[in-house]
Amino acid sequence: MEAKVKEKVKTILISQPKPEGDNKSPYTALSKKHKLKIDFRPFIHVEPTHAQEFRQNRISILEHTAIIFTSRVAVDHFFRMCEETRATVPDTMKYFCLSETTAFYLQKYVVYRKRKIFHGRVTFVELVEIMKKHKQEKFLVPCSNLLKPSIPELLIENKFHHSIAPMYRTVCSDLSDLADVKYDMLVFFSPSGIESLMKNFPDFKQGDTVLATFGPTTAKAAEAAGLRIDILAPHPKAPSMSMAIQQFITGK
Which DSSP category does 28 fall into? Predict the structure, then answer.
């Protein structure tokens, strides 16, 4: 059984950018161990919302006293928008970041040790617990057009004074160059990735192609598109996608 599964999967397309520090990527180890061809190709990309469009929302950045960053992309577009709208962020601004990685990324724009920066570990629920100690702040959430509904829901539920500020859009990428390319496995991490697949290839037939999805919303989108999910992550025995793929390939 194990040999049969290994023989079936030789090529994998991961619908994300190639990770930085490729030599340290778990996919590199996976590729070498099982002699796999693993390619990376973003199925979606980000486009900026420009100042004129942003102003139509009638949101003033400087009327807020704290910024909530859910990703490094949000950090980039917030400071880009500040530059475009000529908004000089005061030193007193507080920053609340979803993770430590995002918090450290702020060093690209501010002197880290001189700012009031707070961060959770992974989830927005964890960050909310930290924010509860700063209920007097007026929070701004720089985001895309695809902000997770749970974020504004939690802000409303906990009665935070806040504004949702779309500053960029997540859109489907042009994948026409992949029309004649066949992969044994396709890997998805967001509903947008599934949407891009179906938009680019409306006649897509899954057949024997193995489909891997990460997270419940991605799985739901795949099922809604009529796709068969062969690998579902995360789960207790495979908290990461690379581990889930490893288990599928080895049959263990």
Answer: H
CA distance 129 to 120: 9
Contact indicator for 146, 192 with CB cutoff of 8 Å: yes
pLDDT digit string (tens) for 87-135? 999 999 999 999 999 999 999 998 877 779 999 888 899 999 999 999 9
Candidate from 22-26, 134-138, 177-181 with smallest mean pLDDT: 22-26
**Structural domains of the chain, count:** 2
Helix (H) or strand (E) holding 44, with range, is strand 44-48
**Do residue 164 and residue 61 come from a single domain?**
yes
Written as six digits, the tokens of 150 are 């749970």
Burial of 32 (C-beta count, 10 Å sphere; 0-12/13-18/19+) = exposed
Q: What is the mean pLDDT of residues 46-56?
A: 94
What element of type H or E holds 214? Answer: strand 210-214
Do 116 and 221 lie in one domain? The reply is: no
pLDDT for the residue numbered 25: 85
Q: Which of 121, 155, 171 is the last residue of a domain?
A: 171
DSSP assignment letter at 16: S
The CATH number of whichever domain residue 156 belongs to comes to 3.40.50.10090
Integer Cα distance of 184 and 6 in angstroms: 11
CB of 77 closer than 8 Å to CB of 50: no
Instruction: State which residues form the domain around 38.
Output: 2-43+173-250
Angle at 48 between CA 148 and CA 162, to 5 degrees: 45
Last residue of a domain, one of 171, 206, 226: 171
